[in-house]
């Protein structure tokens, strides 16, 4: 009886309904989710992460092309909206008009560009793709525009879903700052510039909320860097940067709006600066002169500096100063074997780093050796 019950239980478990089959997951490029758009002068810079994965999480090995889409809306003109200190009038006008959703965008957007696999490397900067568009900022009648962008990635097995939408309401941005200069100083590279006097459309006294500073490699690379050195727009027309030692290129933009989407001028011609170690190590401490039988022994405390190369010892008699040490001294003492007798002598010790930067001298009190 027990054996029959066990058999019925096993049969009951085995007779359950089969689950409906799941459709296979398509192995197509994963959609872009971080598309960004900024206005830089009269142009827009679009950027997004390089497509690297499929919808299944596997590596995306083959990209046939990336398609960029754009839709333009024309809004009302409201000259009374906004002011010198407030939000630009064009932005205020479009704040009242809801943006598009994905399905709406697909119906009305135009194909702006095909970036095929062969041309794609020319649009890559680091791990991101950059594409520049130069649309009309406003209509012939002066009406503002709003531009909305999206991208899709086409792989060998199919096309990704539409990316997130990125919108920009372009405004009359200022021209780039003028007379950009870079001077290398011991603490860093000092950048100075003059404010722009006109906008892209020739308007005087353009709206400026601050400035962004961009640092680029010495050669090559994109002329459209996306990340500024400063976190917030700089209000002044000077900025000190402390980069790694080496050659750098700099550009400064005039910012209209630091919020998203960012609106700023184009970059001016870049300036190049070489930053090297110009800071001297600390001066030696506790320098003393000990008078011995036929000599003067100068001693001092060791300087704690990672690039210290050595020390120099000087002797001053009146207004005359002479270098006593030949080459750099690596000890913390020095013997002057032939000090002049009957006059006050002052000894000075400096520290020198590997770049040849020399500290100010630390001086002893005057010593006098009798005749």
Topology of helices and strands:
Elements: H1 2-14, E1 36-40, E2 43-49, E3 63-74, H2 89-95, H3 102-108, E4 110-116, E5 124-125, E6 128-133, E7 145-155, E8 166-168, E9 178-185, E10 188-194, E11 210-216, E12 238-241, E13 246-257, E14 263-264, E15 271-275, E16 288-291, E17 296-299, E18 308-317, E19 320-323, E20 333-336, E21 344-353, E22 362-363, E23 367-368
Parallel strand pairs: 1-14
Antiparallel strand pairs: 1-2, 2-6, 3-4, 3-7, 5-6, 7-8, 9-10, 10-12, 11-13, 13-14, 13-15, 16-17, 17-20, 18-19, 18-21, 21-22, 21-23
Q: What does this 3D model show about the protein?
A:
The chain has 371 residues and is mainly beta. The protein folds into 3 domains: 36-168, Immunoglobulins (Immunoglobulin-like, Sandwich); 178-275, Immunoglobulin-like (Sandwich); 288-368, Immunoglobulin-like. It has 3 helices and 23 strands. It has helices spanning 2-14, 89-95, 102-108; strands spanning 36-40, 43-49, 63-74, 110-116, 124-125, 128-133, 145-155, 166-168, 178-185, 188-194, 210-216, 238-241, 246-257, 263-264, 271-275, 288-291, 296-299, 308-317, 320-323, 333-336, 344-353, 362-363, 367-368. Strands 1, 2, 5, 6, 11, 13, 14 and 15 form an 8-stranded mixed beta sheet that branches. The longest helix is centred in the N-terminal third of the chain and has 13 residues, at 2-14.
CATH architecture of the largest domain: Sandwich
Overall morphology: elongated
The number of E-state strands comes to 23
Provide the low-confidence segments as ranges.
4-15, 80-85
Helix content: under 10%
**Largest sheet geometry:** 8 strands, mixed
Work out the helix count: 3
* Strand percentage: 35-45%
CATH class of the largest domain: Mainly Beta
Radius of gyration: 35 Å
Q: Which class best fits the helix and strand makeup?
A: mainly beta
Termini separation = 129 Å
Q: What is the CATH topology of the largest domain?
A: Immunoglobulin-like
pLDDT average, as an integer? 86
Quaternary structure annotation = single chain
Number of domains: 3
CATH superfamily of the largest domain: Immunoglobulins
């Amino acid at each position: 009886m027990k054996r029959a019950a066990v058999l019925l239980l096993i049969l009951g478990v085995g007779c359950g309904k089969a689950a409906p089959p799941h459709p296979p997951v398509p192995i197509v490029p994963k959609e872009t989710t971080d598309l960004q758009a900024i206005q830089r002068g009269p142009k827009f810079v679009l950027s997004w992460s390089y497509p690297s994965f499929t919808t299944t999480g596997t590596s995306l090995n083959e990209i046939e092309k990336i398609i960029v889409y754009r839709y333009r809306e024309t809004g009302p003109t409201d000259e009374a909206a906004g002011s010198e200190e407030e939000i630009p009038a064009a932005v205020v006008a479009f704040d009242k008009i809801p943006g598009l959703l994905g399905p709406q965008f697909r119906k009305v957007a135009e194909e702006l560009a095909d970036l095929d696999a062969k041309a794609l490397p020319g649009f890559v900067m680091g791990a991101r793709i950059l594409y520049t568009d130069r649309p009309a900022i406003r209509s012939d009648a002066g009406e503002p525009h709003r531009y909305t962008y999206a991208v899709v990635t086409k792989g060998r097995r199919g096309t990704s879903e539409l990316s997130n939408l990125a919108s920009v309401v372009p405004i009359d941005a200022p021209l780039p700052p003028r007379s950009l200069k870079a001077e290398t100083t011991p603490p860093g590279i000092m950048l100075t510039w003059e404010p722009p006097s006109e906008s892209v459309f020739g308007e005087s006294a353009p709206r400026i909320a601050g400035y962004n500073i961009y640092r680029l490699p010495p050669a090559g690379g994109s002329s459209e860097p996306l990340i500024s050195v400063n976190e917030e727009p700089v209000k002044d027309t000077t900025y000190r940067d402390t980069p790694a030692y080496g050659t750098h290129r700099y550009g400064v933009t005039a910012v209209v709006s630091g919020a998203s989407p960012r609106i700023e001028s184009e970059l001016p011609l870049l300036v190049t600066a070489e930053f090297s170690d110009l800071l001297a190590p600390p001066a030696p401490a506790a320098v003393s002169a000990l008078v011995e039988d036929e000599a003067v022994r100068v001693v001092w405390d060791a300087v704690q500096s990672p690039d210290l190369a050595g020390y120099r010892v000087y002797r001053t008699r009146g207004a005359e100063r002479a270098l006593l040490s030949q080459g750099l001294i690596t000890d913390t003492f020095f013997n002057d074997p032939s000090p002049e007798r009957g006059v006050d002598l002052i000894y000075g010790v400096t520290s020198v780093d590997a770049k040849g930067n020399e500290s100010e001298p630390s001086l002893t009190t005057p010593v006098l050796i009798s005749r």
